[in-house]
């Protein structure tokens, strides 16, 4: 049952999410590059900066922040050999039939609709950009959850752009006509849902 | 509220599912070829026949049968211009942001685990084999739902094979050692869940 | 493959969604009452009007609009006996193991996070307010999809309020301090994602 | 990338799953009682023993085992205050908007179809039997993930029984006519999918 007395403020959760990604070597620009590569062919006037702002907006969602915090925690615990057997081995070896890494990533990608889900599946197999780097990094790092989380953030940000593109088309303009900031979080950053 | 008096027998639903796929030009071999292409690199001794049986087994699941019947019904109604506006236009034009086609396909693919979901996303973008043919068929056919349904059946059958492969490895054998029929429905074909 | 030449404008889709719900006897106030009943105990100062605006906002989402249009179309076709066998009987009898009705509703509820999903499951079993009325309506109406769609819109609107409540708590205010319109769609109603 | 050299055998994963549930005070009979309470009204001749076997079968699924292992690991780490801030506080306080607990449970419940999903949502709110006990246990235990996992196993086992019931009806028999073992795992317990 929920104990309100030790509740954490949203801003703290948001800050911890960004810090966790950076600590694991992932910048929002890394993720934005994947988004740009996927959406550029379909969206006139789209710039990398638009994609960065879309990634920032995705990272404001509670559902996404919680997924990132749990996934990275498990990767880091596995890296320090602090999980119990056999979970330690399963996560450490990036067991192909594990599935909980995809499930946690899917939980947040679902909130961006079914197109985000198929894009996530595509990225999960194709592993472009930073995702490939994370998946093949030699040696000590465990990125079992991280590569799926990055794919999910990229898929969500791409889906937002595809939906926004349609609005622009209906208004008779393109991404060239709008400021990148318009795709980012609003001034007063309420958590999005 | 459910009215038991007009209940349909499982066998009739199973038969209608197979008939609907054939009527739309999709054989179980077409689907099995996609499965084989995806799983062959990872599974020693796997044959097309193993894949056909896995597809047959997937087609025994109620969740899959119902998805196929609803999706093909909507495609056929759209083809005959029998849907009301604006749904008729949305389905007829295979509107990229529609999403209900992916949602219905996802509903059945979910029952094969998160690996099936990412495989589905991959197929939905890559469109190999019969999926490509369905998506680009010129002229009169509406296959808005059908291509997603085929991707979902193929992804599910592939996921079954990946899981079965692991069992075989643990027993020290490969697909070369087992009869294709072993991957298919049991003699007395209860609906699977 | 998508044919852009017959694309439908967002406003038309939004209008058709509202019209379809009204035609089937469901007002946004009916749905808001379910939301109010569920969220009132936890949210100081919440009024029915806040809930109406939250429902309106949910109804601006493409994913939701498409689900409503497809579900109601299938209900109405079944009512007019225009579906082919055995789908006609399955939908007409509100077959308990059918599942595609829940799947389509889930597709849109997912976009509001996992709390919306569990709330949807709860409503699907408890059937409060208009949902009960739809499920037990005697005679000619087929509401196999509609009751699930209403549960999904209510669950989504309730989830939005629960998330917004947290923001308010963190700002030291309650729903009594904010205008109901704040929960509704923005002036220029871009489609939400 | 997957490292095959440290792969864990299925039997070990299955054993660890059962041990983890028992260590946290949950027996398969506890879960079976929830299943029985939900399914008894609709299924003539159903006994608690049938439900126990259905729970055992659900616990053979890899997807379920992995979810249980991850969820209980996080509960136990939180109990020992071994998670990093702010995740430690979020999980320890059973934060209502957290969502990853439901997401992980949903991942395995999905594999039993959309009816299992709505049943899960219902149990998540109603909290009957052992679920209530886990949710309100005073003092030192953290069961943030465990109550959702138990709800997901119960919902899955109940869904299996509902589907099996239909098969029995079509054969003209009831649960009174079949051995409880028939609902359990097969002699040679391959992992199910």
From TrEMBL, chains A, B, C, D:
InterPro entries: PgpA-like_sf, Put_PGPase, YutG/PgpA
Origin superkingdom: Bacteria
Coiled-coil boundaries: none
SUPFAM superfamilies named among the record's database cross-references: YutG-like
Limits of the YutG/PgpA domain: 46-163
Identification of the protein by name: Phosphatidylglycerophosphatase
């Amino acid at each position: 049952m929920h104990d309100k007395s030790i509740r954490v403020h949203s801003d703290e959760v948001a800050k911890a999410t960004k810090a966790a990604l950076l600590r694991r070597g992932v910048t929002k620009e890394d993720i934005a590059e994947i988004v740009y590569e996927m959406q550029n062919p379909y969206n006139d006037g789209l710039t990398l900066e638009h994609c960065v702002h879309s990634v920032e907006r995705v990272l404001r969602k509670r559902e996404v922040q919680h997924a990132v915090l749990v996934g990275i925690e498990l990767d880091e615990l596995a890296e320090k050999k602090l999980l119990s057997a056999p979970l330690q081995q399963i996560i450490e070896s990036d067991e192909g039939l594990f599935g909980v890494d995809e499930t946690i990533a899917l939980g947040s990608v679902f909130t961006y609709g079914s197109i985000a889900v198929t894009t996530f599946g595509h990225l999960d197999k194709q592993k472009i950009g930073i995702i490939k780097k994370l998946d093949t990094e030699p040696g000590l790092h465990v990125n079992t959850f991280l590569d799926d989380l990055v794919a999910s953030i990229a898929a969500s940000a791409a889906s937002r752009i595809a939906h926004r593109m349609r609005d622009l088309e209906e208004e008779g303009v393109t991404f060239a006509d709008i400021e990148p900031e318009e795709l980012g979080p609003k001034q007063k950053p309420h958590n999005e849902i």
